[in-house]
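Anyone have tokens for Protease Do-like 7? Sequence:
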Amino acid sequence: MGDSLERLGSEEALGPESSIMKEELSMDIDPPFKESLATTEDWRKALDKVVPAVVVLRTNACRAFDTEAAGASYATGFVVDKRRGIILTNRHVVKPGPVVAEAMFVNREEIPIYPIYRDPVHDFGFFRYDPAAIQFLSYEEIPLAPEDACVGLEIRVVGNDSGEKVCG
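Reply: yep, here.
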């Protein structure tokens, strides 16, 4: 009896398909994790470029459904297309129901923003704004590049501190 229980998880008991399935399920990290080559100066240059694209989002929402509470909140987003006026943020920030929202840029310039998409599966959503509404700031955009994302990639998070400031 002990022998059959031990064999139950073995390839003999499961058949030749089990070794093929194990190979298909194995995951290799590609590219393999390497020691970071970014210097402090590299990060400073990157932050100087991206901070002007980061915005503080202030939202006010009514109670949309039984599971969502009404209220006001702060969040972080960043400009992904400044020509069309598109800001990327998290799904819960865009809200499932009506929302009134503003974006505050690094120079404290505030503009109204409007929800355009809330992904039903992944944790992202988009707001839009009128690019002509930005009068005093020369700001950047952070273009989306999903093909560059990989396991082991070193990142830095830039965001706001409860709506008080942008910090890196």
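The chain has one domain: 40-167.
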